[in-house]
Amino acid sequence: MADVIAGALATCVLLIGLLALTAKVISLLHRLVGQVRGEPAVPPVLRPSRPVPGAIFYRTRNGRADYRFLIRQVPNDGYRVYILDPPDYGTRSIGNLATHQLQDATGHYICWTQRLNSEDQARRVAALWADKTEDYILNGIPF
User: Fold this and answer.
1) Cα 142 to Cα 68: distance, rounded to the nearest angstrom
2) Are residues 132 and 87 part of one domain?
3) Same domain, residue pair 3 and 34
4) Which of 28, 55, 106, 108 is least enclosed, having the fewest CB within 10 Å?
5) Do residues 35 and 64 share a domain?
6) CA dist., res. 106 & res. 135, Å (int)
7) Cα separation of 83 and 101, whole Å?
8) C-beta separation of 94 from 83 below 8 A
9) How many domains is the chain built from?
10) What is the dihedral of CA 99, 105, 107, 112, to 10 degrees?
């Protein structure tokens, strides 16, 4: 009896995974067909997220994605831009090198080679990262 239940649970988990993958593929196909047809950008579907005091929002230049960041000053290290709502990379690599992300105890943050000395610099980096990330997701253009 326990074997039957375990087998049924494994099958359910597999089916849920396949449904999630199917939804991603359909989403990607819709996005690609829209690009081929030259259709205008469709506002993204916003995912419910927890409120974070001080969070900033950025909509990409193409209008297809919204990003939410948290900028924090780190002692002896300038500012960091934390990524609160990571994007769906679809079929693209999600490795830290490809996505220019690092992680600490607070969460994932943008990997930037130079020290960010002001909140204004951090905001500009957040916007640049979001736009470049969107180019990477849609067109495979690494940055």
Assistant:
1) 21
2) yes
3) yes
4) 106
5) no
6) 27
7) 9
8) no
9) 2
10) -40
Q: How do the pLDDT tens digits run along the chain, 143 residues long?
A: 767 665 655 565 454 555 445 545 555 555 555 555 554 444 444 445 667 788 999 999 999 999 999 999 999 889 999 999 889 999 999 998 999 999 999 999 999 999 999 999 999 999 999 999 999 999 998 88
For tokens 């780190």, what's the residue?
74
Owning domain of residue 32: 1-39
- Render the chain in DSSP notation, one character per residue: -HHHHHHHHHHHHHHHHHHHHHHHHHHHHHHHHHHHHTPPPPPPPPPP----TT-EEEE-TTSS-EEEEEEEEETTTEEEEEESS----TTS---HHHHTEEE-SS-EEE--SS---SHHHHHHHHHHHHHHHHHHHHH----
Query: Residue 35 corresponds to which tokens in the numbers above?
Result: 């690009």
User: Is residue 80 located within the same domain as residue 113?
Assistant: yes
Distance (Å, rounded) from C-alpha 19 to C-alpha 73?
41
Say whether both 125 and 63 belong to one domain.
Answer: yes
Do 69 and 55 form a contact (C-beta atoms < 8 A)? yes
Both 128 and 75 in a single domain? yes
What single-letter amino acid sits at 19? Answer: L
Task: Say yes or no: 64 and 35 in one domain.
Answer: no
